[in-house]
Amino acid sequence: MKTALFSKVFAERSLSSAIDLTADLGYDGIEPMGREPHLPPDTSRDRAAEIRARVDDRGLEIPCLATYTGGDVDATDEERERQLADLESFLELADPLDCRLLRHSAGGPPLHEATEADFEVAARWLRRAADLAAEYDATLAMEIHAHKLTETVDSTLKLVEMVDRENLGAIHDAGNMYIVDTDYGPKSVERLGERLSHVHVKDERRVDDASVPGAFELETRHGREMFQPRRLGEGDVDHGPLFGALAEAGYDGFVSAECHVPTDEPDADIAVAEHEREALDEHIDAAREAVERTNY
Predict the structure, then answer these.
(1) In angstroms, rounded to a whole number, what is the distance separating the alpha carbons of residues 71 and 74?
(2) CA 236-288-23 angle, 5° bins
(3) How wide is the angle at C-alpha 65 spanned by C-alphas 151 and 214, nearest 5°?
(4) Most buried of 35, 73, 156, 214 (most Cβ within 10 A)?
């Protein structure tokens, strides 16, 4: 397993600065945020080549392009076509960026409100997106995410089966899965199998106090709930079994730190990124050692 930083952690800085800081902090890769000020869909190929050159110069890799495309269920056909156009813009950057994995969303509503018709609409447009990506030899990955049709492993795999395209996978996100109260441990890794394309990692906790830093409310199947983003190891998401399962499965891709705690103080974002990298290394090392003991 290799570590990456989702550049959203450095959302207030330029992408060039984010690349340099990510390298300085010891990460193996950087996952560019697909919007301003980092990598909006209107980024030129020349600019993409410059980004790739800087990434290479700093010894990093780009595991995934974190686009904000998709979300078709509640959209109009005009909006859906516009999302496909934005996706194609990112696909055109896949070559100069040397990255063939792109995040693409199925959209909402959340599962407790979803109908079979919602899945059918999402599958139809995801099929078009996957076919478009195939023209660029690229793979799309749907993030398991609250308030999306992809809230759980089962619903994500349901869409994968409905779309029926080899270049459609999933992004595991234990933090999001904790929020919707679904399993994010070893069984989730086993169920995703070869459709597991990428991994996001962040910590969260349920709270009762809306005044705590970063608190946000969300409607879940349990009703209105409140959550607070936390640094890895300081919330309620137990990532240990997940990393153990990834190691046991031989996952050799990236785990991307996506911490979204408030960083209002100067350089607080750097401190957060450093903490997350250290926590990722500890999880990876512990998982690797456990596998070695088992196989000894």
Answers:
(1) 7
(2) 75
(3) 55
(4) 156
* Alpha-carbon separation of residue 220 from 22, 207, 227, 234 (angstroms): 34, 14, 11, 22
Structure tokens at 142: 């749907």
Q: Which residues are CB-contacts of 49 (< 8 A; sequence separation ≥ 6)?
A: 96
Beta strands in the chain (DSSP E): 2-6, 29-31, 101-103, 139-143, 168-173, 196-201, 203-206, 216-220, 223-230, 254-257
Residue 220: alpha-carbon gap to chain centroid: 20
CA distance 84 to 86: 5
Kindly report, residue by residue over 127-186, the tens digit of the pLDDT.
999 999 999 999 999 999 999 999 999 999 999 999 999 999 999 999 999 999 999 999
- Cβ pair 204, 260 in contact under 8 A: no
Query: Could you tell me how many residues make up the chain?
Result: 296
Q: What is the pLDDT of residues 74-130, one digit of tens each?
A: 899 999 999 999 999 999 999 999 999 999 999 999 999 999 999 999 999 999 999
Q: What is the pLDDT of residues 53-72, one digit of tens each?
A: 999 999 999 999 999 999 98
pLDDT at position 268 is: 96
Average pLDDT, the chain: 96
Give the pLDDT band of residue 296 (cuts 50, 70, 90).
Answer: low
